[in-house]
Amino acid sequence: MAAYSILDLVRVADNSSPREALDRARDLAAHAETLGYTRYWVAEHHNMPGIASAATSVVLAHVAAGTSTIRVGAGGIMLPNHAPIVIAEQFGTLAQLHPGRIDLGLGRAPGTDQHTVRALRRTLTATDSFPQDVQELQAYFAPARAHQAVQAVPAAGTEVPLWILGSSTYGAQLAAALGLPYAFASHFAPDQLLPALQIYRDRFQPSAQLDRPHAMIGVNIIAADSDAEARRLATTQQMSFADLFRGTRGLSRPPIDDIDDYWTPMEKAQAQRMLTRAIHGAPATVRAGVEALLAETGADELMIVSDIYDFGARLRSFELIAEALEVRAEAA
């Protein structure tokens, strides 16, 4: 049976503040915990006014403090933006505060534009050392060795589980070689989903962390009481994609009745290609869509994005998704 988890964009809406977005992230994670979702992740994005999770480890500290059992993590940290020791210190601290609950997903892309990469004091060539940086990070989380010259305090011995994220076959190859769980970003880059999963499973080498492949896939799911209402709620995300194509990075906006009044035919084609795996509808529609997706991919876990403007409607969406997929919280 597949596991079900949540990726939250920590959206700042045009009628809210970053503080409200951060508190809603904590509240959503607490709600997801009661519904039985496996994990709650946020991602590192920079220079985007509509996303409040740039300081990812700080956001996770806020979220983890407001929950008690759900796994909390990064999906992901864009490792080329950072020295591995700094990430080990941050996530080692989180693991000390919330033992057994912290995940660390690692991405190879900068997650931002070239101007911001320079502001981060990094270079685009930092991606070249990604495999070595992942292994360095693993070493910091392992038990400290005698006479070890550099330790990431207090990370040593926390064994924070690492995930490799990807939107191409590169990440699949690396995750397989290192024996790590793999998360594919099919919620915005679905084109290479099936080839990447095949490569990951075919080439997987067991490791101390994982003895068999574990493949997670991202999927946009919006649930409402009717298919029509779900499609309307989805226009918020569709407008966000159109804005990205236009080079506009704005705040989350309320849904509209007709998305074709907003985007151009070219923007529509681009967005539909990126959102081709999206599932929008009432619980029965969601259930059928997820069953088909799992049958096609054999995914071990779905990482669900429900990008909805109104927070109450977003909570309701995750409730309906949990109902449709028979997600259950474990008894205490």
Automatic annotation (TrEMBL):
Residues 7-300 form the Luciferase-like domain. It comes from the Bacteria. It holds the Pfam family Bac_luciferase. SUPFAM superfamilies: Bacterial luciferase-like (SSF51679). InterPro entries: Bact_Lucif_Oxidored, CmoO-like, Luciferase-like_dom, Luciferase-like_sf. NCBIfam families: oxido_grp_1 (TIGR03558). To bacterial alkanal monooxygenase alpha and beta chains. This is LLM class flavin-dependent oxidoreductase. It comes from Sphingomonas naphthae.
